[in-house]
Amino acid sequence: MSTTHAPVSMAERRRGSGEGNAARRRGNTWAYVVGLLAAVVTLSPVVYAILSAFRSNAQLAENPAGLPDPWVFSNYAGVLSNPAFWRYALNSTAIALITTALVVVLGIMAAYPLSRYSFRWREPVYMVFVLGLLFPASVAIIPLFIIISKDLHLANTWWGVALPQAAFQLPMTVVILRPFLQAIPRELEEASLLDGATRIGFFWRILLPLSAPGMVTVGVLAFVGSWNAYLLPLLLLQGDMRTLPLGVADFSTEHSSDMAGVFAFTTLAMIPALVFFLAMQKRIVNGLQGAVKG
User: Fold this and answer.
1) With 0-12 CB in 10 A as exposed, 13-18 as middle and 19+ as buried, what is 1?
2) What is the pLDDT of residues 44-89, one digit of tens each?
């Protein structure tokens, strides 16, 4: 028993194609709407803080949600002329740079054997790093304080904060870099070994340049995470060694009546990390895409 199907007319094909295009357009429209709402919700507090810093305390008290009228620049000038702000900024920059350097160097050294070498316990060792993603720093904050202050005597120093921050950044670094390094063809390594290069030579001359996007990605994430860290510096740093997040809290407490100045201090504290992240955004996306493809 055979069945025959009537041929589909050109008009029906066009109708079906038109309905499919319309459905895709509706889906894209909803995606844009959701993305726009998410952007508005995320950026609204930042924009409000930036604009509020250009207002006087009287303007904020009269209309908290209004726009600057007139624009007041003395709030930012007062923060920039405050020596404590630059002292906090120096500490944040030094700790973030040390943390970033440790994360990139140690991360690439750990990811290299886990991606290019075959040994018995390779996957269990890698799973240790993966499980490290589930271990927040706040859980170990008291043991860290005892080790850093009592055993290593690094309390109230840049290294005392940078070392544990780098340690908690390493799991994410290895998870990102390992598939990135695995994507580099084996034939390239074999050809370099045939040309007389050692494994260390291949690592320095070929693998590191090719893995630069992944290293930039983990470096930016480590820098921003260190810049915004609060709990660990709160326990380990005191006085002039405090970082900008701690400085914001101190300034807010000391100048609780000067809300415009607090907004200015907060805005200037977040601008470096925000600008750095936005400048490296494309490299971060490329690095993560390479890790996913790997």
Assistant:
1) exposed
2) 888 888 888 888 888 888 888 778 888 888 888 888 888 988 999 9
Q: What kind and span of H or E run contains 28? A: helix 10-52
Tell me how crowded residue 10 is: count the other CB atoms within 10 A of its CB.
8
Task: Tell me how far apart the alpha carbons of residues 3 and 7 are, in angstroms, rounded to a whole number.
Answer: 13
Query: Helix crossing, 83-116 with 122-132: angle to 10°?
Result: 150
AA identity, residue 93? T
Predicted TM-score (pTM) of the model is: 0.80
Distance CA 66, CA 62 (A): 9
Tokens of 188: 């390239």
Angle between helices 259-279 and 10-52 (to 10 degrees): 140
* Of the candidates 228, 44, 254, the residue with the CA atom closest to the CA atom of residue 52: 44
Q: CA angle 124-120-288, nearest 5°?
A: 50
What residues have CB less than 8 Å from 200, skipping those under 6 apart?
none
Cα–Cα nearest to 170, from 120, 80, 259, 110: 110
- Matching residue, tokens 């250009």: 54
Report how far residue 264's alpha carbon sits from residue 271's, in angstroms, rounded to the nearest whole number: 11
Residue 239: name the closest of 180, 157, 181 by CA. 157
Token pair belonging to 193: 């070994």
Average pLDDT for 192-200: 80
* Cα four-point dihedral sign 189, 195, 198, 200: negative
More confident residue, 49 or 287: 49
> Alpha-carbon distance 32 to 27, whole Å?
9
Q: Are 269 and 84 in contact (CB under 8 A)?
A: no
